[in-house]
Amino acid sequence: MDGVDAEIARTQEERRKMEEALAAGAPMAVSSVTFDTDLYGGGGADPNRFAGYDTSIPASEDDAAEEDTEAANPAPRRLAAYTGHAIAAADIPRSADDDGLPKRSQRIIDREDDYRRRRLNQIISPERHDPFAAGEATPDPSPVATTKRRNRWDQSQDSDAGAGAKKAKTSSDWDAPDATPGIGRWDATPGRVGDATPSVRRNRWDETPTPGRMADADATPAAGGVTPGATPSGAWDATPKLPGGVTPTPGKKQRSRWDETPASMGSATPGGLGAATPAGYTPGPTPFGAENLATPTPSQIARGPMTPEQYQLMRWERDIEERNRPLTDEELDAMFPQEGYKILEPPASYQPIRTPARKLLATPTPLGTPLYAIPEENRGQHFDVPKELGGGLPLMKPEDYQYFGTLLNEEEEEELSPEEQKERKIMKLLLKVKNGTPPQRKTALRQLTDKAREFGAGPLFNKILPLLMQPTLEDQERHLLVKVIDRVLYKLDEMVRPFVHKILVVIEPLLIDEDYYARVEGREIISNLSKAAGLATMIAAMRPDIDNIDEYVRNTTARAFSVVASALGIPALLPFLKAVCQSKKSWQARHTGIKIVQQIAILMGCAVLPHLKSLVEIIEHGLSDENQKVRTITALSLAALAEAAAPYGIESFDIVLKPLWKGIRSHRGKVLAAFLKAIGFIIPLMDALYASYYTKEVMQVLIREFQSPDEEMKKIVLKVVKQCVSTEGVEADYIRNDILPDFFKHFWVRRMALDRRNYKQLVETTVEMANKVGVADIVGRVVEDLKDESEPYRRMVMETIEKVVANLGASDIDARLEELLIDGILYAFQEQTSDDANVMLNGFGAVVNALGQRVKPYLPQICGTIKWRLNNKSAKVRQQAADLISRIAIVMKQCQEEQLMGHLGVVLYEYLGEEYPEVLGSILGALKAIVNVIGMTKMTPPIKDLLPRLTPILKNRHEKVQENCIDLVGRIADRGAEFVPAREWMRICFELLEMLKAHKKGIRRATVNTFGYIAKAIGPQDVLATLLNNLKVQERQNRVCTTVAIAIVAETCSPFTVLPALMNEYRVPELNVQNGVLKSLSFLFEYIGEMGKDYIYAVTPLLEDALMDRDLVHRQTAASAVKHMALGVAGLGCEDALVHLLNYVWPNIFETSPHVINAVMEAIEGMRVALGAAVILNYCLQGLFHPARKVREVYWKIYNSLYIGAQDALVAAYPALEDDGDNIFSRPELAMFV
Amino acid sequence: MQASDRFNINSQLEHLQAKYVGTGHADLTRFEWAVNIQRDSYASYIGHYPMLAYFAIAENESIGRERYNFMQKMLLPCGLPPERDED
Fold first, then answer.
1. What are the tens digits of pLDDT across the range A851-861?
2. Number of H helices, E strands in chain B
3. ipTM for the whole complex
4. Any chain A CB within 8 A of the CB of B50?
5. B45 and A1196 in contact by Cβ < 8 A?
6. Of A668, A927, A950, A1175, which has the highest C-beta tally within 10 A?
7. Domain boundaries, given as residue ranges, for chain B
8. What is the pLDDT of residues B28-53, one digit of tens each?
């Protein structure tokens, strides 16, 4: 050992000398630095220097990186590795790779627009009604004050920083979290870079460790000391000092400067920051940041989430760090021999810094300097390596450290206070719910629910709600957390009251989420919340938000109120609404009140009818409000109410008709649009007479507004015109003369086709007009536009014509228009270039079908076009042509153009060599349409030529091809099997077996049916032999389909042709085959129903055997065969055989495997139908009062299903019970005799 | 039993059955079952008019009276429940 010491001393001496030399300004060359040659080989010249190194880093972590750590403690590692996210991570990218697209982000924030993202600016408010909080200095809850405060905060940072340029990047609200004093705690968690500033800025920070940095994130609150209170001596500063060796850092020279950072410069030790800061400088009593929401401190108010980019950075950084993490003591122990080495105390000046980002924190804070103590290093921590969570907890994502970081601390559970233990428990459960596997989630969710009251509302919501505000939340995670709230709400009931507002802040944004299910979830939560907390609490919680200056807050509050109304009933809310809508204090309050009414109407639909009058009265005065926004929302609310009430309730709107009426004459712009909308929705409620009058009146304004350039106005005008036109009492002539000219002039312009919503609205309105004025007027006006040069516009015209013609037929169309129409359609069809061909195809099909025989003169021209286009170079054009054939085949038949069709058939036949599967599928579909129409005998090419050509196509694996081909083959097998030799059909049979593997159910079903047709055509023997052979294959789906096919063959060719061979097959001593036979029998008896009575005795011995088999599946399948058999022959006098079979089924009632027991129970149910309830009851009575509970349970289960199925029938069969003392059990009535 | 089976339809079956009045379970006593039987019987008699008519003739009562009697009997068809032994 002495030798070692001497060597160490020598090395230290050398190094000291060198440092002195350096300090004296000696030139420093890399080669002059002494390396430990034992470790690093012989200097720079050695060519084999890097021999032992990996030349590349493995792509996947689990290959290499994790192996090292696994050695230390493999078991928990492996346990923790089996998490949902690991599995999902392995799974999802693979599927993403398949289509070669980058993975679509799952996070909610990525699909939100700016307005929705404003939810992140919301503050989970402090408890406002909690008596316990009374002692604290409650901050002003109003967001205005908070905003001010926050701004002040930012300003102070800015001014203090003195480096405005730097701050410009960081001092947005987003970055406010850095100012959280509690953050110090999080520094203890390795790998988390909570305060990560993008690494771009790193250098600048590194180079300027000026004292001015006091304004930096961590320092600010400390300096400010804003929140009074002492530091809790929480777990975080109790980290024991572990005497440990130095983490050797030779070779990482670029670090040396920082490794030597003088301790006085600041809290450089990760984990040490919080620990070492003297109490006076730890700001606030809430070092836990988000946890202690009950005691609001500026820290929380200032806490906002980080930007997703920062999180991305964190993730990436963590990934890199994990690969380059420093060696742990254990690893070093394993590497070095036990002797010859000594673990040195680190020099006092040594401060390890691992994360570049954390260097930011390492900057000195002058205020902290004098009181700074050397942090005690927690050697138990693995600095940058994400630590394993014990107890089978799932992995954390980097952003989770902010919330779940404390779980990583290594304190003993026993040392914690009960409160902290509870907190930990909740966090663990939440982490499991959020990141765990489904079973973990399930149990955690149940525990949370069961213990909800025990945990208490405060600790629960203080953990859950911040999680929901996490900006990187994914849909699934949000769903799960919302589910937790829902369950917990149910349990906590009135205990949630103090938290109502906080929950609302988090849940309200769901109400405007674009995802429908999120909206539904949000409504459900708020509805449950209002039932749990009661109306008074809900109103108290939301009242302050009603006149919030932030429109976002008011919007979500209005929606939340409407949910409350639907949960607790509109009448309960009416007085409050009335007061709000008449508020004199601010227009915002009136606006929100009226908006609540609108949202109620939208949410509840016709359920507003009983309260319609009072709702209208409440908002009526808003039409003449001095604020324009209030007037607008009032009109919109009336529109919503009218829409919800339609077609009833006009009398409720009487009072608003006049103001609305005046309004549309006096207002302009947005308000006018809203008023028009209201009128437009009220008119359909009116009697015909009034409707006609009002329509004419309002139409003048509408026609004037036709030319409005405002998009919103356009949409509303279109909508109102549609409403008015469709109203009874508006005459066709009036529309034709007064509306149509202007309407077409202003709306049927190319620009309208460009916006999807305008397009739809315009088509709908025009179709509605056509319903009134007839086809000819509308089509006559637009038909020329089929030749317009703008394709979207042509498409819009085509869609309108299609809908109009499909609605009203083509009888109004005269010869001239007909010509124009066909001409235009052909032009539009040929000129189309876009991907979506359906509009043109449907339009063409609709027009041709509507014209019927009148198309005959044009058919040659159409067919010429089709033929020409079938030969086109572009696959899409060929496909469209083929599709068109299948649309017009029926009309061609009507026009007696069979010869033409035959010709087309031949042409299509020639194109069967098509290589594009999409096109080939369409060609097969066209052939099918022709075959269907002209029949097998007249088909050209003849079936005997066509079918052999189809056989190879059956091999094609493309779904569309498969589907169309099997349909066509099935059709031929059904109708024209005799045209094809039996050998060809057998060949097809073999091809069909492959098709049973298809993914699409339609294909499998068509295949199975085709087996039936073929068997009918060529006799069942050969087909059956093929199918029975196929029972031996391994693939389950294939076997299942085969059994179905066998059953179908038996059904089409009578069971007696199949049963002998099938039953013979049961003798094959192979599980799959026997089960296949049983399954076939099951399907067979299901299909043949009553016919089964002739075969039941034949198969009984086989079923006997199967029901006694050792194999569970045998018994299960046999039981389901028995069920179908029993149901089929009920009432046909087969009771003897059935009772016999029941005796074999009955012993299986104690099976536990779910499928088996299910089949057995169903078999017994079947028997109940066939044999009568009394028989089964007699079987049951043996066990109802059996001494063994397990037996009783099963028997009562059977009894119950018997009882539910045939309660009445049991009356006659109940046993006669003996009277017992005072209790009379006998039923004397049944003994009565006349 | 596997975790997945715990939530499937089979295990829910008993729960579903329990929703119906008159179904039983493993801890049902003889008395409770007998009460169910009696009530079912009376309900059935009342529900089948020919049965009611038959009983009316046999007892020489009006049909309405029979119906009323049966309904009354459904209240405590077997008398008061026996004392449960505390165990």
1. 999 999 999 99
2. 4, 0
3. 0.92
4. no
5. no
6. A927
7. 28-75
8. 999 999 999 999 999 999 999 999 99
